[in-house]
Amino acid sequence: MTDKVSIYAFADEAANDVAGQIAAMRKNGLQGLEIRGVDGKNVMSLSDEKAKEIRRSMEESGLRVWSIGSPIGKIKITDPFAPHLDSFRRSLELADLLGASVIRLFSFYIPAGEDPAVYRDEVMERMVKMAEAGKDSGIVLCHENEKGIYGDNADRCFDLLTSVPGIKAVFDPANFVQCGEDTLRAWAMLAPYVYYMHVKDADKNGMVVLPGTGEGNVPAILSSYLKKGGRAMTLEPHLTVFTGLNALEREGDRSGIGVFSSREEAFDTAATELKKIVASLGYR
Q: If pLDDT is split at 50, 70 and 90, which confidence band does 260 have?
């Protein structure tokens, strides 16, 4: 088995435009992009022509679009689903145009203060419909454990992953920390279903910090992930304010803002720390 690891990134945290994102990835020796924002706009707003242009630019630079960091499933469970299912189908089209092999998605925001179990059947029905819509696409659908959605803790993630054929997991340690979840417990439960990692860490107060310096047990989880054959991960620094962040988080959620003098410095430092962790584990 190869000891080569593929590190991708949410490079919209380094630059708005594609050229700047490519420069940041090449500077840090990364393999490609989990595309989320371009020119300050969400990936879902891309035209066919723009998607093709981005793919050409990436490939000419020796990089690839690995995953679509979509906002699919980041609506209220009480919101209408039919238009959102159409958006999901559009994400499949964009994945094909961009050459992406993965789409990141979520399991719907639960009304604050309400028991998620009340909405379980609706969540599962929606997730099944998306899995069925994507089953012949060749795209891997990966659910992220995001704060406030049905699958924001290990038990409900496990419920979803074992109930919906065709859905795998992207494991985000920081999000679990921010939900009060023991990340080692979550990893032990979910590891068999994890397709790739989002590398993001958080301290005991929920503030996002450099990988390996928080409560997420990032080095230990990455070690286990790599030992079981995992080789793909996406760097998500979240260490400074970047265009579009306010649209990605609900009011009151906290990222690691104001730590670095620039978004470029934050991105570069996070990439360096992640590569140090990977190297310390005997991989490259």
A: confident
Cα(136)–Cα(126) distance, integer angstroms: 17
pTM: predicted TM-score of the whole model, two decimal places: 0.93
Convert the pLDDT of each residue in 106-147 to its tens digit.
999 999 999 999 999 999 999 999 999 999 999 999 999 999
Nearest to 186 by CA among 138, 228, 244, 225: 225
**Please, what's the largest Cα pairwise distance for the chain?**
49
**183-190 and 154-163 helices cross at what angle (nearest 10)?**
10
Packed helices 82-98 and 48-60: angle between N→C axes, nearest 10 degrees:
40
pLDDT at 2: 74
> 60, 129, 51, 59: which is closest to 93 by C-alpha?
51
Query: For position 1, what pLDDT does the model report?
Result: 61
Per-residue model confidence (pLDDT) at position 242 = 47
CB proximity list for 8: less than 8 A, separation 6 or greater: 30, 31, 32, 33, 34, 66, 67, 232, 233, 234, 235
Backbone phi and psi for residue 209, each to the nearest 5 degrees, phi listed first: -130, 175
- Percent of the chain past pLDDT 90, that is, above it, reads 89
Q: By CB neighbour count within 10 A (0-12 exposed, 13-18 middle, 19+ buried), where does 262 fall?
A: exposed
Q: Return the structure tokens found at 83.
A: 């238009």
Confidence (pLDDT) at 211: 97
41-42 and 37-38: which strand pairing? antiparallel
Angle, CA 169 vertex, CA 212 and CA 3 arms, to 5°: 55
N residues, the chain = 284
